[in-house]
Input
Amino acid sequence: MATSRGATLLGPDKLELREYPIPDIPADGGLLKVEMGGVCGTDVKYLHGKLKVDYPIILGHEILGRIEKLGKNAAAIHHVKEGDRVILKGALGCGRCDDCRRNNQRFCRQRTNYGGRTKCDTPPHLFGGFADYLYLAPDVLCTKVSESLSAEAAALVGSVMANGFQWAIRRGGVKMGDYVLIQGPGQQGLSCTFASKHAGAAKIFVSGIGRDMPRLELAKKFGATRIINVEQEDVVEVVRKETNGQLCDVVIDVSGNPNAILKSVDCLHRQSTMVLGGLTGDTTVTPMLMDKLVWNEIKLQGCFTADNDATDAALRIIEETKFPVEQMVSHVFPLKDIEHCIRSIGGEVPGTFPTKALINPAIG
Output
């Protein structure tokens, strides 16, 4: 019987590479051969049990692959054919719950969720991108991607680059002439920098710590006009000086660091917007002087993930500009090294701190 490996999380810090049977494909289902899987900070929190899930799950929610097999009705459902190269982003949801009725299908608790809420203990098992193959569910949204994009670039579109568009422009409201601060120069920070630049921001500040210097230098290529090492400079003072005391129109925190979040408030002028995209964990409490938000009428905007059409927007701008977004990919690991990769992303492996890491099942 043909099988697929899957990086299976059994509980906090219990990650195993397990074998699963390739499932029978129903008329409305399909099978995807995984080309690349993106690893992010959320996977670190999943690994360490900082985000609550029902175990077991196969990790991996940033997915690029090729259609290996389609049921007789699946081609019409997904508008793809066998051999097509696709990214998977979002799902239609149940269509009946309150979130779906408000056109917020990404919040639907019943939708297929790769690498997160959909368990893998029953057939068809393969609901995560850190695997050789993945089951293509009927309610999942496929987006066909160009063969001209490198695998590294294509793997970034659905989650990373789409989030930048969603968080900076759609939720943050970044527009021409704005002053923008992005706290955290990782993959999401770089994507928000790219989006802010294309929205016409006048100045884009990107902050990080000392070990982030390679990421901060890369942020300049993605559109940053000033980088800030917060271990050497005070971010509030830099922003105040560089904006002639006007401060920022939008601050986007993708660091997930409570101290950075507190500093963010002091970098905003009255009636501006603070976007929270970084996760701090289910048990982390961030103490904040809420009166600062009240007196200055600060809009506090949380962000979960990108809407489905944000993927299309990100894909179009990358294909048209041919901007080498794959520059943020610093490491590609084989599937067998998935735990090492995730721990590296979390800063737990001395000497290895990827800006963006991908898993390529084909290399081992």
